[in-house]
Specification:
2 strands; mainly alpha; flat; 9 helices; two-stranded antiparallel sheet
């Protein structure tokens, strides 16, 4: 049962100090759940991918998934659905409640003091920190578990190519005649899934 206390404590800290949204939280989440050995690095990257594709914020989705799998991973006696649902509920509440309370109070405070030089200075300092945290999350996900989980050389280059193509499709508009069309991210995810199945599943 100690794992549930550890989950609550870990996600309380993430909920309190996780500035900048889900992507900025990822480095905190990895440190909290991968380093203690609750889940493997490969499973963490899979959970991040699933959290990105499912509706809702990535931080909350990942808390729900990790809360479900971590108890059974640490203690096989807690591998049932009931224990997993308990972990999901506790982790999700632990990450949501502190953020909800902080946002509820800070929004009221900021609205009253929006013209304050102190508030403006605080946000000026927070913006580059958030950018740095998101960049660190991107660098953290550029690992062997994402790009070369099987240790096969050709798969590394195929995965790098898929990543580069997906980035170009998301960032640069395609020209059709006089129109510039940007590919929707959902379509890019579907195309990447199809490419993965054709390359690795057949």
């Amino acid at each position: 049962m100690q794992i549930y206390i550890q989950l609550i404590w870990a996600y309380l800290k993430i909920g309190i100090f996780g500035f900048g949204g889900g992507y900025a939280m990822l480095s905190l989440v990895e440190k909290a759940v991968v380093e203690p050995g609750w889940i493997s690095e490969t499973m963490f990257t899979d959970i991040v991918a699933i959290s990105q594709m499912t509706p809702g914020p990535i931080g909350i989705n990942s808390a729900t998934y990790i809360g479900f799998v971590a108890p059974g991973s640490v203690n096989p006696a807690l591998s049932g659905i009931g224990w997993g649902l308990l972990g999901s509920c506790l982790a999700t509440l632990a990450v949501v409640v502190p953020s909800f309370i902080l946002v509820l109070y800070s929004s009221h405070f900021i609205r009253r003091h929006s013209e304050s030089g102190v508030i403006k200075a605080i946000f000026s300092g927070l913006r580059p920190v958030v950018v740095g945290l998101i960049a660190s999350a991107a660098i953290m996900l550029m690992n062997a578990a994402n790009f070369n989980p099987n240790g096969i050389g050709w798969q590394l280059w195929v995965n790098v190519a898929i990543c580069a193509i997906a980035f170009c499709l998301a960032f640069f508009p395609l020209k059709f005649g006089k129109k510039n069309i940007k590919i929707h991210p959902i379509l890019i995810i579907i195309l990447a899934g199809i490419a993965g199945y054709l390359i690795y599943g057949l």
